[in-house]
Amino acid sequence: MHLYIMRHGETFWNKKGLIQGSSDIALTPYGEELARDTRDGFDREEIRFQRIYSSPYQRAVKTAEIIAEHQNISVKVDLRVREMCFGKYEGDKISEIRNSKDQNLIYCFSKPSMYVADETGDNFSDVYARIEDFLKNEILPLEQDPSVENVLVVCHGAVIRAFLTYIRQMSMDEFWSIHQPNCSVNCILVQNGTFHVEKENILYYDDPELTHRGIL
Fold this sequence. Notes:
- By secondary structure, this protein is of the alpha/beta class.
- It has a single domain, classed as Phosphoglycerate mutase-like (Rossmann fold, 3-Layer(aba) Sandwich), CATH 3.40.50.
- 33% of the residues lie in helices and 16% in strands.
- The protein has helices spanning 12-16, 29-44, 58-68, 103-110, 124-139, 157-167, 208-211; strands at 2-7, 51-54, 75-77, 150-155, 185-191, 194-202.
- Strands 3-2-4-1-5-6 form a six-stranded mixed beta sheet, with helices on both faces.
- Helix 5 (124-139) packs across helix 6 (157-167).
- The longest helix has 16 residues, at 29-44.
- It is globular and about 55 Å long.
- The two termini are 29 Å apart.
- Its EC number is 5.4.2.-.
């Protein structure tokens, strides 16, 4: 079985370079176009999904719904793949993090093991716990269903980094070494109860500026 993990399309806050997290920001028209390009890429490669999951935030749901249009399948929302909540830092400019006087904010994006969330936010360990539960209790049982060959999860930059670092057994402090542009796709082989990253950062569009913009 193959698990495809995809980031949502461009949002208005992506365009402005702001930290999103749990803020429920809509896709831009271009973000919807990127989702359609990705949908068409799946069509060209004849990838058919038997399950499509999405984060509850509208940017992920809309992206998933666009993909599902050609798949004749409904989207299942799962809270476990929602984006990491950055608490009071949401809405801050990503470009200003490096020069911030808030050491905790700097830790968040440079040394996650030292980061301590405020009362409204998530620690990195919270995100890892959610995705571990999702993989073990939602995805692995599907491997036993012979009718399920391909599963799509549409979620977010930080959550995808958690998926990939968890599967590869990387350290938490390597979290931000992984780059995930909007609508990037990662292909995971699920076999005999294990996960293996086969392909990373598959893009079905050509936009160098977007590909290298920002981290969230």
